[in-house]
Amino acid sequence: MKKALAIIMVLVMGISLVACAGGANDKATDIVVLVPNADHGWTGSVMTYAEEYAKKITAEGKYTVKVITSTDAANQISQIEDLIENKTAKNVVILPQDNTVEASMKKLAGSGIPFVMFDRIIDSVSDKAIASVKGDNNGIGAETAKRFIKAGMKPGDKILIMPGDNSSVPGMRNDGFFTTLKENGWTEEQIKAIESTDYTGWSRSKGKELFISFLDSHSVEEIKEYKWIFTHDDEIAMGILEALKSSEIDAAKKEAFYEAKVNLGSSSGLNEIYSVLKGIHQKDYTAEVAELGDLFSVTYDPAMIQTAIQDMIDHLEGKTVNKEHVISVSVVDKNNVAEFKGFGDAVSK
Predict the structure, then answer these.
(1) Contact, 55 vs 64, CB < 8 A?
(2) How far from the centroid of its chain's Cα atoms is residue 243's Cα?
(3) Quick one: DSSP state of residue 290?
(4) How far is C-alpha 331 from the geometric centre of its chain's CA atoms?
(5) pLDDT reported for residue 346
(6) Of the residues 53, 102, 155, 198, which has the maximum number of CB atoms within 10 A of its CB?
(7) Which H helix or E strand runs over 216?
(8) What is the pLDDT of residue 260?
(9) Extended beta strands in 73-130, E state
(10) What is the mean pLDDT of residues 191-202?
């Protein structure tokens, strides 16, 4: 009798443990969206668009979507490993902070938790992702090169590139740029000679600092040779405009820069750049823009994060999802800027 009772007790305890485990899993958030905190305009808008869509989907009642932000790569690594260990998410949509989260992304890929990557794609785990959603980064580089070439850029001309960070995004933008140069007669040696600043971190202030440093480190005659600047983000381009408007640049070097009639290309769709292109920015950059040969921005809409979330929902509902989901780009200049909606705060007069 005692033996039978003991067996029953063991069975009851086993069922209780299973029930508890099942309950913990049931309470896991259906979709967790991991994005960087608002460190600059574009990621700030990604966070906003993610939160708007999460609220909308959750309100519909079928799925619970939660957005979690991270202050840096170490913070995001901790978040990834926590949700793997504690099974707090059934599915994940993630914009990786940078390539330093790769080891944790490999753990996520091996955990059995389905995930969608957005924007900064970690190549080593892309085959395990439900989808990799991104704007056409190669296209940004290619369209920038085409615009420069159409404006008269020739093989061997002096070019300055101001990259974002060490993630996949700047690499793809440069690849598109360099490939287009090769298709138009540039040699490998000429491409290797293209000058690049340190990483800007997608920061306006860092972009401004690096641009001033570039001018400081070159002679007046050298500066006149640089007619083409490819920045990887509108924040960086705004840093250049702010530097030109300030008194922090030697007058002779500023004059040399203006004499070059620089073609300045950037990307993303920041509201401020659109205001500059329209000539309505409250700080009035009309004089600075007039000294440029060209100013344009290639689109990279932060609202694409909603596409990434929807791809996960489509997967959960058994729909076909494109594993490589690339969203096309457009070139925006003063002639067509009225057709596009920028992101970020309004800065018009």
Answers:
(1) no
(2) 24
(3) H
(4) 17
(5) 67
(6) 53
(7) helix 204-216
(8) 97
(9) 92-94, 115-118
(10) 96
Residue 206: CB partners within 8 Å, gap ≥ 6? 200, 239
pTM higher than 0.70 for the full model? yes
CA distance 208 to 251: 16
Q: ∠ at Cα 300 (46, 135), nearest 5°?
A: 95
CB 332 within 8 A of CB 269: yes
Strands (E), 31-120: 31-36, 65-70, 92-94, 115-118
Give the pair of three-digit tokens for residue 267.
């990307």
Rounded Cα–Cα distance for residues 293 and 177 (Å): 19
Query: Which residue's structure tokens are 């086993």?
Result: 14
Q: Which two tokens stand for residue 254?
A: 């500023």
Strands, DSSP E only, in 76-211?
92-94, 115-118, 131-135, 158-162, 195-196
Residue 347 is predicted with a pLDDT of: 78
Q: Alpha-carbon distance 344 to 48, whole Å? A: 10
Cα(63)–Cα(207) distance, rounded to whole angstroms?
Answer: 41
How does pLDDT run across 285-317, given as a tens digit for each residue?
999 999 999 999 999 999 999 999 999 999 999
